[in-house]
Write a structure and sequence with these properties.
The chain is mostly beta strands. It has one helix and nine strands; from the N terminus they run H-E-E-E-E-E-E-E-E-E. It has one domain (6-119). The protein has one helix spanning 6-13, and strands spanning 18-20, 25-32, 35-42, 47-54, 62-66, 71-77, 80-87, 103-108, 114-119. It has a five-stranded antiparallel β-sheet with strand order 1-2-3-4-5, with no helix packed on it. A four-stranded antiparallel β-sheet has the order 6-7-8-9, covered by helices on one side. A hairpin with a 4-residue loop joins strand 3 (35-42) and strand 4. The two termini are 20 Å apart.
Length: 122
Amino acid sequence: MFVWDETDFLSCLETEPDFDEEAYSFSYQVEHNGLRLVLTVFPTVGDISISLFRDGLAEPVLDLSLDGCAGARLVRSAGREWLEIGRNDDDAETYDGCAPLAEGVAVAVRPHIRLRFFSNGI
C-alpha cells in the first residue's frame, strides 16, 4: 500500500492534480524556466510516473517509472522542501510516511525544478 499525504504534494508542487477516475491516478504538472514536470501517482499500486520536458522538444528529456513504491514524504531542511518518493527498507512490512526511504527520487520545484535520485543504504 502506497502511503502519502495528498496535502504534502499540493504544498510542495504548488498545483492541484488532475484526477483520472478510470486509472485512479493523480497527475501534477509544474512549469518553470522552460521545463515542465509531469508527476503521476497511482496510489492503489504505488506506481509513480515522472516525465520532464524541455520547451521546444516533443519527447521528454527524462521519462521514469517507479513501480511498487512504499510511499512519499515531505522533507523540509535549510529553507527548502522536496518530496521523497520510493521504496522502504526490505525488512519493513509497512511504511509510516515519516521515516527516510531506502531509495527513490527526490522532487523539488522551488527555486527550480530538480530531480535527485537517492539511496540511503538503509
